[in-house]
């Protein structure tokens, strides 16, 4: 069960309106790696956790914080959209290249659909979709996704920081840079613990006999040239075994031949 | 530029048809974490790499191998669909619960749309979409996604392995278990190298002054109770700083108040 | 800013596992009219509200409750998936039609992808998408969507209630039936207030001179026969004007003729 | 069965080309609340109606009119795209901010994909999807969606009207403003009739004993502060019962604890 | 402008309910190649046609017929859903494998969402999307898509015909088989006319000097082995030139090297 | 199994950066008719082919070439994005309309998400989806799709060619124009062979008795006026039968009446 406070976790007020930045900030709100993604992903991972209470709680703590981050960015976007140019007939558009750029570059749905409000969409107007997230039941696999999400997310925040000199936007983005650092670090901490218990390869519970054994630590060089060789050659893998390198990989099976289709499918029959 | 050999990288022939397993195997072909995802993701990351030739080549080596994995699973599915029950009027459906389960559970598009062929879709028939993948230009961020993809993918392969006793399916899945292990290990190797150069937090190039400084290593306890505390409390984070823990987080900003909308948007005006 | 309590708002424990009902309950979790939709819709409407504090707060109160409803249903689904049949080779499938039905009818992603956890998807496995929701800046327009969402949602809950005799599921659904009733009634209350101020037709701010005036209260009978006539004929519309009825509507404009395409588009040139 | 007349229902000719407005008008053609949505929604509701011939006919009358509205807007868009700037090298782009805005802001698919034709997409190029519509079998629930669609749609038309001074566009939009008014009013009329028969809460057929009884007319204040209280406090709900208000809602159930996952799923086992 | 007749173009009544066939028939209603696709595709192609009145009219004639086909299939599906088993607790499910198959295999949204009505979705419940269709402004290109759509569609109808022995379903499908034949033939007729005018290669207006000339009629053998050779070897192409065959294709350009990324993107810098 | 060469099949280097063209070229990379579509479509058709080795090989030859085309266009886009304007505060934006157009018109995800890399998306940022492709098991039906894809694709390449004067872009597009010509011609060749064997109407295996016989070669004139008549009137169809023309088509079935819904669905009961 959740409760809401009317105050924001952190400041989210720009110095001045900027409809282009409003469009761009949609990426970290409703894009693949935006706050809606981490919020929903951590919620589902937390709710689905089966008996690892400290991770379950950590996931729900962080998910709950992320709802507040969506709130902050939505609030920022709504304010950046104040005074957005709504008509190409406005005088300024016809004489000022910078305003023309805003006119051309702003998201038309910010005017037509949301009435200068934030949308649950990315910077190109794609709807947020749960295709972006995962909750698998294997916490180590999911923690790797979580640290990925915080890495990709923080990268986007850093890029947006460089795209503006507005002190209000930068203050909020600086807060997100800091929080995404913490979130990366806490998921890395959890990964360290889990790898210590379950091993480095996910899932750690697969018996070795399941695997085709002689292809487990081998890099096949499927491109001409050997640029990739130094990444693994002569090194010990993180699970303690040595990497091998195969310069010219061979096919291990024959050419497949499929059976003829049954007549009632009206497919092309095989040539004789 | 690419070339094709008609032989498969590894065996992909089931002992006997099984339309239910055909449906399930679609998950690792065209699902979020299936082979189409890693194939396309590594291709784009490789093509977009700007001057890190060993990683670029490693990505394209592995991408090229993955095209061959899509080929293997597609071939397996086509064979599992041989003899699929096409009509509920077939005698067997009316008397045999196991065949009734197949009739009910098989993917109808395997008969109607693909004519007993594999589809670029997941086990529920959702189309594959590039929403599943990322290529960001930050190789460390992307390598984290890659190790995630191989972890989630291998987890699904392991689950499918347990769902069948067909030796042919298990042989192919055992090959994939082994290759996904290698791919996890090679991406982990790359991550180790990159973290050594760029630091543990992505992106490593953000100046500290960008960040709101006092919130970088703090876990806010947004859920009642303190189950999550032991994950970080009293520990040093992977970047060498100490974690802090705030039991009752406070809002750092005021309640936001938005400006009234302009009249030409025909939104609800604020109450006075 | 939000906070989380570990307790659920209401009971969410089934009497016994039932993987078919787990699949069906996904509809009210991650479907078009599920709890994820109302949760996200009310959040965005609340955050985007410009100066109508009582509605803004009501939206955020209700949104916050809905996060807890997603939590309840997710928890219910995870428990319904305990003991789900994972392999068609299990003995029971081969002899028991009811288990065969479960085998055929359960969502394969509940086993392969989520590891017996709830997914942010509907009963056919379609991902939740923000295409389902709206926040327009016109509160009356949005309140009409909200009462729609609670009507469609409650309808689905009622249908699910009839599909099971499990007392635990019914208890949770009975709670949702009651809450959806309240939510319908509170949005209807808001609609009454807003219509009193702004008029019955949305948006109420459009000057009459914008409209092509003689077609505002007319039902055109575009189907043969006059079955629809009694709905409006001889009645006063809710805005106080009389409905008109046109039995055989005429075209008011000519056949359109488009200009030839420019050559550099390589379109088919018009025939001479 | 349907037939087509070559004439348009109403005028759809702009004074002059305007590729930016062409992009914007896509929203009311192929967006969430565009004419494709109401056309398809009313068609499906009409076809699925089980024995309420006057509503069935009204739905099909209106659906049939809407096909003609899609036709009008598509025709308008094609004409607005005449003379669209196709190349950034055109002289005008380099000197005229207004043309630069068009160049930057127009939909590139209008040139590359459709050859200056309308697309079944919204103003950001998102494909139309049947996720936008509903046909539930409960006519009152659906009529509420219909009045929503006409409200959101008319709101967007009004906003577009303000964005241009082109008399031809405004004439067509003025026609749509008038028709959307009629459609709102006729669905409201149907709602009045249906509520009189079935009650205000949808679905009206749910026995009271299904509901958890003491939570049916209660507003839970899940946000701090009591701004929302006046919407319901001391009022009678539309179904004749009194609203209640709970300032500090309590959890009614315990913290959920999920069972450990079965080993063959290779999920993280619970900590001991 | 359109008008509607209440009678169906052709019979659409099954002998008896069959919820599995209802699910399968959704494919030809709302699937990639279903009637919604051809209806919407021909409408847009017709509306966008610039000055080829006979094709424009042919497209709109056929589009208008297709609206009636959607109507027929929707009506058929609604009737096939009568008496669908709604609860796994029903006695029949527990004893009868055929009913168990229906229970497992039916679309749960047919009960929960549409109330035994047709949905604008395919046989796996995927929403119809305008991604399925095209209107390009080049009528020959589009006519090729149209003949494809009628070919894929008729193929699916033929497969469905084989899956049932219900005389009512077969009668309707037999009608569609006949109409899809006509539609294939009429589009082929148009293609013949257009190819005679514009040449066999689309678009016919591209000057030869645009093309890299020595690769226009060459099959590159990118797979080992020469199975594909006989398709073109020693033959004259449809445009009157001779095919060539290259057994071992060579790369014509160098390995690409991309520039380093700018610092403000925080991407991985190139290794030195 | 596949292998990769580091060299490109053909040159893909622009004369100078152009972020607007980068956005536009995404259409032929990741759009409906882009290279990702033909690559994936030919791969799946090849893998699913059941015993027509020459076509299977031709499909895989061409698919393998197309992977290299995706590579070329991705490489081109990455280079066009060099020096893209990242901030509206840059001086040039404020004074130069052409740069303002680029600022407004470029894809923001090219900066924020991909770090100046190509994306698996179209020119409006829509993700690539397997909804774009088909593999049906009927090779003639699929070859018709393939010639469509090469026609639509070549049309888009031709349009893009006209939109730029950059010699490097034009060189690459000229190569694609030539290859798309070849691919059209080779699929046309295959179609000729298959039609000779299987007949002109797909699928050719449907017994005539399945069809409702008197509607197979008839054009119904569902639009007023007879513009479409000359396309078929008095002509022999490609299958050797004569076309018929019906000026005023009649309904062949009655108005449908659906049964009342069962009570447990809580739908609207029929009026008496």
From TrEMBL, chains A, B, C, D, E, F:
Annotated residues for binding of Mn(2+) 1: 35, 69, 150, 183
UniProt keyword terms in alphabetical order: Calcium, Manganese, Metal-binding
Record's keyword annotation contains Metal-binding: yes
Cofactor binding remark: Binds 2 manganese ions per subunit. Binds 1 Ca(2+) ion per subunit.
Matches recorded under InterPro entries: Ferritin-like (IPR012347), Ferritin-like_SF (IPR009078), Mn_catalase (IPR007760), Mn_catalase_C (IPR027407), Mn_catalase_dom (IPR039377)
Binding site for Mn(2+) 2: 66
Entry-linked CDD domains: Mn_catalase
GO molecular function terms attached to this record: metal ion binding
Gene3D superfamilies: 1.20.1260.10, manganese catalase, domain 2, chain A
Pfam families with a match to the protein in the record: Mn_catalase
Cofactor section: Mn(2+); Ca(2+)
UniProt superkingdom: Bacteria
Annotated transmembrane regions: none
Keyword Calcium attached: yes
Residues reported to bind Ca(2+): 57, 61, 221, 223, 225
Family: Belongs to the manganese catalase family.
Protein name: Mn-containing catalase
Provenance organism: Alkalibacterium pelagium
